[in-house]
Write a structure and sequence with these properties.
This protein is an alpha+beta fold and 70 residues long. The protein contains three helices and two strands, in the order αααββ. The chain has a two-stranded antiparallel ribbon with strand order 1-2. Helix 1 runs antiparallel to helix 2. The N and C termini lie far apart (30 Å).
């Protein structure tokens, strides 16, 4: 993602929303954090704070789910 463009960014977001495992969620979220373009970095921040759904895995496998208010 380091040199990625907006198309790659959207691909990461789409795959993140479809991810089934905590590992995939973590990997894709980490990828979103590595876009160097300032506009995409800002989009990544906005996406993680207001995206459709964010699933995190806490220690001991506890899953936390945050969903955007509609």
């Amino acid at each position: 993602a380091t040199g990625g463009d907006s198309l790659l960014f959207q691909t990461y977001c789409s795959r993140f929303e479809k991810a089934k495992t905590p590992t995939d969620h973590s990997r894709l979220l980490n990828g979103l954090a590595h876009f160097n373009d300032p506009a995409l970095a800002r989009r990544a921040l906005d996406y993680t704070l207001t995206g459709s759904e964010l699933v995190l895995t806490a220690p001991e496998g506890t899953r936390l789910r945050f969903q955007k208010k509609k």
